[in-house]
Amino acid sequence: MALLICCTPLYWEMQVSPLGRELSRGTTEEGHPWIGAENPRLEITEFTDYQCFQCKKMHYYLRRIVAQYPTKIRLVHRHFPMDHEVNFIVKDPFHIGSGKMALAAIYSVSKDKFWEMNDLLFELAGSEKEMNLTKLASKTSLDSKGMARAIYSQKMRRKLKIDIWTALKRRMTGTPSYLIDGKVYHGQLPPEIFKKFLN
Prior knowledge:
This protein is α+β, with helices and mostly antiparallel strands. It has eight helices and six strands. It has a single domain (30-198), classed as 3-Layer(aba) Sandwich (Glutaredoxin).
């Protein structure tokens, strides 16, 4: 056990491996991006905020788990930014810019670039004061003008509101939060979940 702890990199030093085409991915009937198993034993729906440190930690963790069990686990992504500009439960300035980051990610779904964008947003979060659309576009091969329009698009904002309202209806009050078989988990997932579904 001690050897495992010593040899495992700390989560803030972890990096997500480039997304390979060997992992299946798609969108749910409602249009939410997923990665992993086409017919999963375990489906995890995550509600995250790109400016949330714990979300970033769990992002690395879950990506590794999905890579280990690509035919058994499906990870579905949804947004719950704790940004006062888009989330009415947040009264004071907090996680500024995470709403715009979520909108950029929502835009990338229609271009089949969500998981690349998702990884990049988590990588950049906290290291830059403002989201640089030109940089995001060049690193994901997306159109910066299209992305800029999407951030102010009412259609994209409605999609984000649906995620926020869904989280609130499920009594989620922070991030990350997870939905598995109708049950909500806050912060992290207990190991028993994986034992229950994967044994």
